[in-house]
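tool_call: predict_structure(chain=1)
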Amino acid sequence: MSKGKKRTILMMLCCLIAASCLYETMFRNEMEAANESLPMKKDNHEVTIASEMRALPGGMGMIAENEHLQLFIDKKTTEVSVREKRNGQVWSTNPIDHAKDTIATAINKTNLASQLIISYFNDKGHESFMNNEEESIKKNQFEIALVDNGVKITYEIGSSEKGLSSIPKAVGKERFEERILNKIADEAVRNKLRTRFFYNEEKQQYERKKMQDYVVKDVVAVLESIGYTAEDAQEDNQMVESGDQAENVAPRFTIPLIYQLEGENLIARIATDEVMDSDAFPLHTMQLLPFFGATDNEAEGYMFVPDGSGALIYLNNNNHAARAYEVPLYGIDQTPLQNSRTEVQYTQVSRFPVFGMKQENHAMFAIIEQGDAQATITADTSGKLNSYNRVGATFKMKDMEPVVFRTGSVTKQVPKYSEMYDSGLQIRYAFLEDSSADYTGMANYYRDYLIKHYGLTRHKSGSDTPFVLELIGSIPVRKNFLGIPYPSTEAVTTYSQAIEILESLQKRDISQIQLKYSGWFNKGVQHRLPSSIKLDSILGGKKMFEKLLNYAEENNIEVYPDVAFQRVYENGKGFQALKDATRFLNRKSAKSFDDDIVTTNPSDMLYYLLSPRKLTGVVDKFLKNYESFDSDGVSLRDLGEDLNSDVTSHETVNRQEAIGIIGENLQKIKKVTGKIMLSGGNAYTLPYAKTIVNAPLTSSEFNIADEDVPFYSMVLHGYVDYVGTPINLGRDQDQRTALLKTLETGSNVFYQWFYAQPTMIRDTKLNNLYSPHYGDWFEEAVQLYKESNAILRDVQDQTIKGHRKLADEVFETTFEQGKKIIVNYNKSAVTVDDISIEAQGYRVIGGGL
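tool_result:
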């Protein structure tokens, strides 16, 4: 080859290399302009994924993607966003423009930029708060690592070890004065710094006092201003005897937060087995993503909360005087003394672990999958602490109980703490759009979720709706013998009288009866521990009880004898409160109290709370005895209602673990009895329930809430029979209102009766049963049932696919195959969409396919 050709080829290669370098530089500059290169760790190796990312406004980079969603993160702030591919809608952990908020100040300002807000106790048991923005992100105390389909961010929240190392544990007197104090020009700052050290006259040295974290930051800032470094501090420590002077006592927490894409959902979870606190500052609560999906003060829509039947809080409702919504799931834990004596602000229990946010034509719906028993749902509107509407969940990590110690005449109260909750926290976020972006869409989504995860099965069609009836057999009374009082029982509905009432109903063409029979064994309604079964002879004995069961079977009546497992009404007879009741750190047996009507303070004790550790043993003994009665059903008074922890010196059962114990026993009970009637109906009990009584049909009507919705009913209709509280025990005992509520919610008719006259319960523990004599309600019940059944019998196997408010106190419910029921609760007629509805009346439209 000639020299000329060689030179030509060499020049061409140089041009290609130059062009390649130029292209690489241009590409790199473009990517860096969209988002900085994001260094992360995976398998302990540095990974740079800038070339794989697509940017969101604000400098976020994409770190995970599937066919439905894209996940983005800002490596500087750790804020995360998820984008729906189908429509481009973006949901973020924090408001995008939170830095511009004109309302939030101080801690409320940094809360807006936080993904975690925690509370903790100090050595006196007082609660304090901090967030990961102020105490982790700004301190650069976090690590980002890739995980499958997502990212893990480990936050070190609180005390900075690096800052503490810059402050000497001890320093000689002359050195302290010359190298530190004399270098500080401002006398006030100099005097302030001196107070942070203790002068040890014997050793002629200054020794560091205990310092809270905010003090550490201030001291480090002063030392840095005079050029005093961590190396200087280490040198001073080595030059003098630091002795045993107090170390820094400051809160410090390690919390790993994981985001992952799973199909159409975003999963946010805390690896609780990696959460760390300290003995000096126990972690109390944790708000996880308190501002996820938060929307500003111009948006339209509402927040959904699971209060009772469900409630809506309109965005920006300007109800600034109302307290923020804050309600625990499944009611309060009655075991800790401080909880059982807390004033209860709600009248309905939140039974579903869900919440949501509707914004225009988009909605976010959240399901708490792990840690639901530890959770409290929170929500608030804009204009109070900040400019945003937000809904989320707070989880309890440790409980505290003040324990009193006495030595002679000296009394000391010391806080004691439960073990850290470590069974996982996880929230699943689903995203809805257009016609599904409302509480109806949320209910449909949750129903499908329960069918998939809990195996709910559809009702069969073709029969009348159930008439649910509770009959009370025997009640506790106080009798006297020669002036000496003693406990006894009285029959208010014997077995033969129960048959008589059932016959009367059937003669009126009410055939689909579900009978809950309370007070049939072990001394009445408030029976002894059911580890054994002794029928109450005062009701008629075993032969009459069997006759009742046989009559029911022959007439297709479902009988559910009622039993309480967790509520123990008598100490003794197989139950020892000191050994078998739930306990907390004060070691006292947990009890439930009735509240005084006037003072609302606890008054009479109602019952002890059985420890979840003891539940399985009691259930096993009950079932062994119950099988001999050949009953194909049982009513469980408390397993669908009560959820309590138990803390002993050698074993702790938290509420989440109690759910597992209850579930195992419900499965066992269903296998033996076939059918279960539950009271309350917490979400984790649904796979086992044939019928739910005392289901929530209303909310607690908090001031912050704007509207009740029948979310609970919309989820379960067509799959589980449910009724509210007994109609004859309602607040106003208004038959018409009760009928309308039945029609709106698709619920069934429920009455509580006994055969005897009401005077029988006077001056007994059942004074609250003021109107259950069946003769006073029989005709009304028959009429109400027949009217309700005529409308609902053909839709009892259908889901509720729609519900909406048409006007004030006017609501429309739409069933799966198109039947619509419009109810008017007003005491005057209304016309809506050219449809006239009489006062406290209803209209039925359509039906069939």
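agent: The two ends are 88 Å apart (CA to CA). Proceeding to next step.
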